[in-house]
Amino acid sequence: MISYETSQNMISLLPVGAIRSERVFLTAALGRVLAEDIVAQEDYPTHPTSAMDGYAMIHTDFAEHKALAILGDNPAGADEVAQVESGICIKTFTGSLMPLGSDTLIPIENVTVNDGLIMIDKPVPAGFAVRPVGESYKAGEILIARGTTIGFAEIGVMAGINQVMVSVAQRPRVSIIATGSEILDIGQTQHHAGQIRSSNNYTLEALVNQLGGEAIGMGIVGDDKQGIMERFDEALRSSDIVVSTGGVSVGDYDFVKHIVPKLGAEVIFKGVNIKPGQHVMVAQRGSKFIVSLPGFAYSSTVTFILYVAPLMARMMGCANPYEPIEATLKVPFAKRSNKSEFTACNLHFEDGRYWVDFEGKKAGSSAILTNLLGNAALMICGEEDGDLEAGTLVRVIKL
Amino acid sequence: MISYETSQNMISLLPVGAIRSERVFLTAALGRVLAEDIVAQEDYPTHPTSAMDGYAMIHTDFAEHKALAILGDNPAGADEVAQVESGICIKTFTGSLMPLGSDTLIPIENVTVNDGLIMIDKPVPAGFAVRPVGESYKAGEILIARGTTIGFAEIGVMAGINQVMVSVAQRPRVSIIATGSEILDIGQTQHHAGQIRSSNNYTLEALVNQLGGEAIGMGIVGDDKQGIMERFDEALRSSDIVVSTGGVSVGDYDFVKHIVPKLGAEVIFKGVNIKPGQHVMVAQRGSKFIVSLPGFAYSSTVTFILYVAPLMARMMGCANPYEPIEATLKVPFAKRSNKSEFTACNLHFEDGRYWVDFEGKKAGSSAILTNLLGNAALMICGEEDGDLEAGTLVRVIKL
Prior knowledge:
2 copies of one chain form a homodimer.
Chain A: H1 4-13, E1 21-25, E2 38-39, E3 49-50, E4 54-57, H2 61-64, E5 67-74, E6 88-92, E7 104-107, E8 111-114, E9 117-120, E10 130-131, E11 142-144, H3 152-160, E12 165-169, E13 173-179, E14 183-184, E15 196-197, H4 200-210, E16 214-221, H5 225-238, E17 241-245, H6 256-262, E18 266-270, E19 274-275, E20 281-285, E21 288-293, H7 297-316, E22 325-329, E23 340-350, E24 353-357, E25 376-381, E26 393-398
Parallel strand pairs in A: 5-6, 13-16, 13-17, 14-15, 17-21, 19-23, 22-24
Antiparallel strand pairs in A: 1-12, 2-11, 3-10, 4-6, 4-7, 5-9, 8-9, 18-20, 20-21, 22-26, 23-24, 23-25, 25-26
Helix pairs in contact in A: 4-7
């Protein structure tokens, strides 16, 4: 068995190929990963622009005139702008271009208006309330770098430069296959107590969607070699990554581990010294990947986060959202094995720090998916770690 | 002008009515807010279940027998289970019900198989590798509380209990209207330099969608009283919250502030001692709300986060994702006003703490939306705060 660190290194070296992109409408780009740099084509604003409502004037007039004649109005969006000369001002509104010749805006609140004249009650510094050319950005500036996940601010900035169509990374297509004759799909009638309700395929499909991929639900296939073989083949033809659950352990009905090599896939690794999920297997066929996860609900979810999420992030050219962060243990922790352990914990942010505890988390088998509800995170203990004292800085994966 | 704290109190007291729910398919519930408690109907597992591959046996047989006869196989999902008696074991796989009479599972790795018999090489404690009834949860336990935003673990747990349909809070419908004759929609031809490209409506629609609402894009309406009146009326008939940008300042073309009261809406507050966004106005007509934001891109985005996001969260019965958290200032900060200030900053997580700096952030007008790109957050300074030293604990809103 290889170590967790080695397995992560191997994932980071898998040849995922160049980013594949597609062009989508701006409003459809929310949550997608940018596949091009967004570069400013011109300075913004392109002209000096008023930042308030007031009167555009020449700053030296503060010294030379007690009153200025109002030449007219300059509403925002106006086409023509009159020229300001000494002794003259133009009423100018937020967002309007500054009239030619003016250099300063005196706010409405700072003047008294009387019979077409303004009397200056409180002068302002030169250039006051004028947005200079290029205040927001300059031509040639990279506004948003490729690899950025597009949020509301990115959408707004791209709208502001009239970026109607946007190049984004294609969603990696990820097929999910649950194996096991005991598994019953939701909605199906249970005939006897030995059947258990499917949860893995729904958990993992939700994860694929949250991570920006396109989940292909391949349903459940029983412990039947030919059936599993056919379903994997269909999945490989349909998707970039095939994720399966179950069938990788040591039992007589664990067919997946035998079938994957028969599909012409090269096994990258099988077995990692981790808990849960030591039987995880990663294989490659051409440009496609097979990630075979254990069948227990907690194990399959954790190993998906450890092995499929970084692969998807690499295909999209973005950061893996499940990179570990630091937190402080609130209670002692008893390590149970000499493996790298990923333990469900609560993560709270208090007094400027993240804190880890295990209140309400159940010890027991790797079947307990409810341990991942709420503000759950995964605490990472290394192979070499022993028991940990309260106050220890630990690494956690925020879910 | 009221204080920021008073304005937030008033938002938290607005009568938003009871949560309105709808039933959706489980797979469509990802990202929605749960509107019912999810309660376990039975213990899970319902029967003692094998957690590994091995041989089901009676623990006292370790003392009484050197070898046990293998009665047969008990694959996962099997309907009938034979009875284990003293001197007999049944091969049992991960996820199978434990055969009647058995209490312990001896793993495959701990025995030698020979001619239909197992020889025990390494005994295990009583109950080993048996998932007891109710290991995951007990009947009557609340698994997921209403108000929870549904993530992958919630989807998986609900699939596991065959929750095909789920009650979720309806998405609040939020209309977005941008006002201003200078504003040009994306894709439209610019005729002169005084026209500026729309960004507010796209930024705010993205925010509505991210927050789980349903955005209704009402486009741009020029500075025309009748036109604004009609668009607001249409928006009020279409949505739960009407959000407008522009037209609330002190200028001659700021019609929104006059029109809202004429629509029969009661102004809850107009003007808050904050920077940016001091002219923000909140009004109510029946069960609907109007939130009129300033026109500048940075101001409208910040005030949306401060006033619309908590209102939407209350309508869905969930926590506001923009609750402030604590961070440490990495550099000194010069306060510019006696208002509550919301300053764009970078937020980094390092050495177990969030740190705030302003590298790359541009000082200038409230028009600079690019300040919200990247790992941006809003640093909050109170009215009473003065300049802040490096190392000060500050509150920030993570975006």
